[in-house]
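Q: A reviewer asked whether we had any structural model of the full assembly, not just the individual parts. We don't, so I'm hoping you can provide one. Inputs are below.
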Amino acid sequence: VRPPAQTIQLLPPIAERPFDELLAGARDGAERAWTEIYRAFSPPVLGYLRGLGAAEAEDLTGEVFLQVVRDLHRFEGDRAAFKAWVLTIAHHRFIDHTRRTRRRPLVLLPAPGDDGRVAPDAEIEAFARLGAGRVRELFALLSPDQRAVLLLRIVGDLTVEEVGRVVGKRPGAVKALQRRGLATLARRLNEEAA
Amino acid sequence: VTRFTDELPELAPLVQATRDAYLQPPPPAVRERHVAMIVAESRRVAAAGAVTAPARGFRLGWRRFGLAVALAAAVVVVLLVGDADNRPAPRVSDPPSPAPLSDRAGSPQERLGTGEPERAPDTRSAPAPSLPEPNAAPEPGALAERPQPQPEADPAPPPRRSYGGPEASPAPLKGPLDTEPPIPTAPESGGPAPDAPPP
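A: Here is a predicted structure for the entire assembly that you could use as a starting point for your response.
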């Protein structure tokens, strides 16, 4: 029996429990609540950081959630707002991380799943690696702002307004960045098809 | 408010490929380490929040108390300094401070009032004047710390008290009673004057 694919289990359903109860348990330090929160929101955070090119995306993800713990008493909102808030923290953390690592030599980023710690099915891994490679090539053509906007919209599944709040831009600017980024990707795909 | 796939359904293959590429959970070991770290931090924050609220109130109370004490001390200092500058002169009815006999000038006879002129007491050694006369009292409003105009600085005693004897006045006035010689007058009976030489 083949194990289930990793990509199928990306969004564990936490909607069974009311989100307010989950936050209340997290504020009290309940391990179960934090386990659910981490399981639900760590994939978009890690994917966003990887897509931006963070050298130590996993460690940075841990730092993001530690900041979430420290600032949780300030948060008020539903699940969607919470995800946007967590991704905002991730965005700021990445900016700080980039500023720190500018003095260090550039590190070649491994593709997701290349570190050997995730061992899904071989066929699925091959497909994901191929897809990841193509996606990485395509996203490498984008500007940093276009990449951040598209990652937040696709990986984070945020709205234009939420993306604007994360990156500190107006919705019109977010739409413009998204339009230009998608145009770049479409042009590249057409070139490959031709 | 629309999501990306709702807004651009034609890009569904790209969206799916991107999510497959990036949306992967952390490895189990990383997840366990992160969850343990997060739970420990959460409990630390919760404990700190439970302790911080009373401690903050306690510190605030002590801060207010210290501020009140400092203000009270400042007011007291200001009042004392202002009182030292505007301290009123001691009144005549105030009980005079007894001055030691050794500080009083003059001989015992002079102090007993045997015709000798009284001297004002040394106000430098005895701050409160012991003279019953209002004239000898210090001027109202005079500063206690400042040297008072000393009555004994004028060695001349009051002239009205110098009639008691020759020692009373260092510069006795020459009155008509005892200093001027008698004026010779002519005898009324036509005889020679008593002091006139005999013919």
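A: Points you may want to mention in the reply: Helices of chain A lie at 19-27, 31-52, 57-71, 79-101, 122-140, 144-154, 160-167, 171-193. Confidence is low (pLDDT under 50) at residues 1-12, 105-130 of chain A.
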